[in-house]
Structures are given as C-alpha cells and as structure tokens.
Amino acid sequence: MELYGIKRKAPVFFQECVDSTNTRIKQLAAQGAPDGTVYIAAAQSAGRGRKGRAFLSPPGGLYLSMLLRPGCRADEALSITPSAAVAVCRAVKAVCGLGCGIKWPNDVVIGGKKLCGILTEASSDKNGLFLVLGIGVNLNTEKFPEELRPVAVSVFLHSGKKTEPEDLARELIGQLDGVYAGWQADKNAFLEEYRALCVNTGREVLADGRPAKALGIADDYSLLVEYPDGTKANIAYGEVSVRGLYGYV
Known about the structure:
The protein is α+β, with helices and mostly antiparallel strands. The radius of gyration is 18 Å and the shape is globular. Strand 6 and strand 7 form a beta hairpin. It is about 25% helix and about 30% strand. It starts with 11 loop residues before the first strand and ends in a 7-residue tail after the last strand. The longest helix has 21 residues, at about 165-185.
C-alpha cells in the first residue's frame, strides 16, 4: 500500500494480513514507538471488538490502528473514541461521497447498518498512559456471512462502487491526525459534530434491555434517555440498541 502525500513525523506500517492491528501497535508501543504511529492491514485473522468479541475482518476492508500517547489520565481520554468516529465519518464522506451517522457510542453506520467499528484499548508503560485506537471499515467487501447480512454493510454494497483502500487510508490518517490535535487542545472540540451525527437522538432504544427514548448526548458523551415512567438517566456504558438498526424491532 503506497500512501503518497502523507507528511507526518510518526511512521505508518502496512501488512497485507495480520492477526490484529491493535496487537501489532501494542507490540510497537512496548518497543517505544512514538505518538501517532499507525499500523494498517487489508485483512485480520484475529480482529477484536467490544467485550472481547470477534470482529470479522475479511479482505476488502480497511483495518487501521493508531498509537496515542495523550499525556493525560485515562478518565480524561474517554472522549477520544467518539471523536475518532467523527474522523471516520469525515473521511468516508470525503473519499466515498457517502454521509454516515454514528450509533452511540462509536459505531459508524449507513443505511441502518454497521459500516465501521472502533475499539480503543488503554494501557501504560514507563512514559504513562497510551491508547491503541483500532478502526475497521467495511470498504470493498462484496458479501458477508448470512448471520451478518442484516446488520453489516460495506461502502461497495451501499454504493455499488469500489474504493481504493490507499485513498481512504490516506484521508483517514489525515482526519485522525487533525481530530487528535484538536482533541488535545479541547477534549470536547468535536462534541457538537458528534451530536449532529448521532442517530440515536429522538429514537426508541433499548438501554441495557429497558425500553426508553434517546433524548440526546450529554457534555461527557453519555446518552441521555427517558424511560416510559418519565425518569431520565445518563447511560455512560452498556449496550444500547436503536429501533430499526441491527434488527431491533
């Protein structure tokens, strides 16, 4: 993969197929890799999602992980993942011409199906906290396993057009670099853009299995919901399903 035009201090590595780009970045971090180091693959054999779930990573996707050394506490870094979702939406729009949304907290969706998953893993070394920001975009995938077809989509399946992975990788790295710089200056720099992209707002949801209505996104990126009895709550963690997305009916 030739990423012409990228000018940045941190290195970018590429391998056709790896076990997990997050795993590779962790290995590089242990060797002292600098802030902003990127590892890209065209396929993963052991991709991971939230709560240790397997993340299907067939050829045709774009799998990218970035090492972040933000110089802050772990609790101060929580907003980097939703900010990264904004960067993905920007990159897909710029390269593929497709407008995406974000299903809280950080799934990028289009046409009611999942286009991209983001997994951020935190660890530390002698230099303090570091984050591994992992992003998997379904780019040119032509067919998903039957069980995933109702919930997953690729750029190709949605638009009928193939995209050069190098083009999206180049744009996504640029967007991530810009968002990371903006986020370091202001942890809520992308809150309003995130709110505008969030597809949960105003929709019926299941918040940890309980029916509710999503009212909006709080300043800490938690999801504000209202239950049928009128009580309200801020959901910071847990599973939230949206009626009409991923098969919730």
